[in-house]
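Thread: Modeling a multi-component assembly for a lab meeting

Hi all, long-time lurker, first post. My supervisor asked me to bring a structural picture of a complex we are working on to next week's group meeting, and I have zero experience with this. I have the sequence lines for every component (785 residues in total). Could someone generate the structure of the whole assembly? Inputs are pasted exactly as I received them:
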Amino acid sequence: MSIANGRLDALPGMSVIGRLGDRATSAAVMLAVCIAVVVWLVFVPLSALLYNAFTEDTGFGPGAFSLDNFVEAYSSWHILGLLWNSVVFAVGTALMTFVMGAFIAWVVERTDAPGRSLFHTLSLLSFAVPGLLMAMAWIFVFSPNIGWGNAVLKAAFGLSDAPVNIYSMAGMTWALSSHYFPLAYLMLGPALRALDLRMEEAALMAGGTYPQVFTRVTLPLLRPAILSSLLLLFVMGMASYEVPRLIGRPARIDVFTTDIQGAIIAAPPAFGVASALGLTLLAICVLAVFFYRRATRYAESFATVTGKGYRPARIKLGRARWPVALAIGAMFVLALGLPLVTLVWQSFFRNLAQPFVSAGARATLENYEFILSYPIFLGAVKTSVLLAAMAATIVAGLTLVMAWIAQRALPRYGFILDALAFAPIAIPGVIAGA
Amino acid sequence: MSGFQTGIRVCIRLLSVAVSLVLCLGTPVNAQGAPSPPWLDPTLLPAARAEDSLIVYSSTNEQEGLPLFKLFTAATGIKVEYVRASDAVLMSRMAIEFRAGQRSYDIVQTGTINKMPPQMLAEYEPPEANNISPQARDPNKRWYGVYANYNSPAYNTERVKASELPRSYEEFAQRKEWAGKVAIDGTDNEWLKAMMQFYGEREGTELVKRLAATLRPVVTDGHLAMARATGAGEYWVSLNNYVNLSMNVKLAGGAIDVWALDPVTLFFGQVGVNAKAPHPSAARLAANFMLSQQCQEFLAKFGRLPTRKDVQSNPPGVVEMLTQKKVITVLMSPDEERKWQRQFDQVFKGR
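Re: Modeling a multi-component assembly
Sure thing. I ran the full set together rather than chain by chain. Output:
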């Protein structure tokens, strides 16, 4: 042991302790910064929401304390209809989207069906189409009056009435699910990829049947991933606006988001009423997050990462390879192909022109000429790309730091970051935007 | 210095005086050297040019609005930033920006300016306002009608024959075969008020309820979208819509036409100057431009009905057809708007 210049850092182990101490201090600072940033992102819009909800709506800004907004928002039986429609729509969307995404994830990650990389690419393509355009496209396909899909089916089967009506709860659910199913695929795919097949093999060797193994081994192992995706899909269903506006409103199916937007765009705008409605939407989403966290509070017991070099073997489908691949392909054609073909076709016509049905409609490039000569088009593209890149970078960076702190640096305080990371999920976009 | 050099100096001096005179007087000569349009107010032009920018918030679609303001730029040299959104979105945007104290636009052109708090608009009397109809002028001088927004039903000409059209709203309320094929916009409270004024409160309420019960109209979001959807055949009939939008779709080749029933509701597509305009002189000049014959003739090409007598409607005869019926002008305050919207929601949305 030696003491150099009166400093103890020459003692064995003291430099390591010093480095650990420095690291802990840096981590504590980063923890504080992360908490501050996330609190800002979550609580600022929440505070504004509460403030607007509990103050009088004047033409110039919030006035005195008042409960009038709640009276106006909740004094009609209509609110029960809103609640019912919103929950049914969100649950239906979550389930349908989950089933579609899970099917694709299972085929792509666990089987030897052909076309897996193509299916992966097509799943990502669906995200490139804005929700508003998808909703519009489905109207052009399955509107009972002008939908070309219905026109084709009527002609093919000699029907007098349109067999499919997009203006229904089922239509709304389908329109949103066809847009969101890649999300379920992206969340379940990695979980399936990392699943330890040896547990299933061990269960089979112990005498379990395939259904038993699936329900008692596979599903429990996938429980956090399943619940995460269902939660996210439910919240996105609750927060969806384009589909309820374009498809739900003509069908007289109002949900919270359409009423919130209706209050915001009234003349004059009723921000207080919109905020009062938003609180119910928020409460439902917070409840969903609460149940999710209770269901996954022992998440570490579901860990299946097994170590180096492990790759689960793919399930050999045998004769079912091509039928399964074709089934997935058909799903993509139906969910993605129909609306995309419709949009591309319609872009070459000035007025409504049904693909494969319209005779005599004159195709034109006028729409493209208009867009390309629109003064702010290039600026809008640039802004969109910049916004997307910045948002993705900031979110990825922030969550990387938060995950590192929660799991490695200061795991004792990880629960704070965990809770804060989930908080934004419970705030639907229409409320944050308002 | 030689006499030649002195002569050159004198010429240069004379030239610069002449140029200064031209600039000081603000002689309005446009890029093509044509005579200056009458709306180019010489008292405003120099200051407006110095501001060199104009921000317009408008609900007029870009196919009309962008070329319209190119005319303004060609005449004045002032760059225009044109921001288009529906009237509802513009109202909420302007309200939020006003609360935040932002000076984000110069003029607003939409159909709901009369519902804005007056403090948000500057009091101004453009010279061209003398040429528009008196009904289209705000007595408080905060907005002026750029085009007349007549309201009437519209129909898809491929689904409905002109001979099948009802001649009154009472007849309309008997058309059970049209149930579910009729649309109305969710904000048509002006039409509702006009119905009550025409029929009286009791009879009007009963009639409107019968219309809602028999026709079960689809409540849509957006008048232009409804006009296009009617032209496309999504709806056979619009119970009520803006005539200029139905005409706009018709002129673009849509299978749509209008017909008039008593009463015909009238309000105006208006222009107002922001009380906090960042370019106030350019704003006032632009407001004057929007009331001019040049502007209204341009808009008439797209089916907008003028507020000036010296501008012909397109197609001709539309205003004459509408004014054969009882025309009721409806201009509501924000509180009235809320009251009538609530009534509308009760009847058509079941709330």
